[in-house]
Amino acid sequence: MLQLDTVIELPVSSHEVWAELTDFSKYPSWNPLITSVSGNWQVGNTVTITQNGVDSLSEVLVVKPGKELRWGGRICSGWLFDGEHYFLLTQNGDGTTTVVHGEKFTGVLVPLMEAKLMKAAKSGLMAMNEAFSKRFS
Predict the structure, then answer these.
(1) Fewest 10 Å CB contacts: which of 57, 96, 117, 137?
(2) Looking at residue 33, what DSSP letter applies?
(3) Distance between CA atoms of 36 and 74, rounded to whole angstroms?
(4) Structurally, how many domains does the chain consist of?
(5) CA proximity to 66, closest of 101, 19, 25, 130
(6) The model's pTM
(7) Closest CA to 35 of 49, 20, 18
(8) Which range marks the domain in which residue 94 is found?
């Protein structure tokens, strides 16, 4: 398994973060990583996500408003490659929100692609975090 977590602190409530995070219609105007999202965001549904110019079908895994959003995609039922993208929101007592934004990869291809996956994942997550943070400044 390969997992990468990034953390950002935002000066607004988790509900404000959630509202902006799930306003997928605005992604093309600010998001350098995920430029398009379409579909019905209910657990178990399939959505289309455009990341780095490539469309992929992903399953909605978790939708907990104000707390967690998670989706994933698989190749060959996950034994070859399985990836999850997630956001975990924690409302802090001072009115700020901590956002853990990460990706997790499993499957037999992961060890062969580890360096490339880590580099691409880290740069993509950091770019999205920076752009997302600017939405609240």
Answers:
(1) 137
(2) S
(3) 19
(4) 1
(5) 19
(6) 0.92
(7) 49
(8) 2-134
Tokens of 84: 């999850």
CA separation for the pair 115, 119 (Å, rounded): 6
pLDDT in tens, the chain (137 residues): 889 999 999 999 999 999 999 999 999 999 999 999 999 999 999 999 999 889 999 999 999 999 999 999 877 665 677 899 999 999 999 999 999 999 998 888 777 778 887 888 899 999 999 999 999 98
The residue whose two tokens read 């070859």 is 80
User: How far apart are alpha carbons 44 and 61 in whole angstroms?
Assistant: 6
The amino acid sitting at 11 is P
CA distance 80 to 109: 6
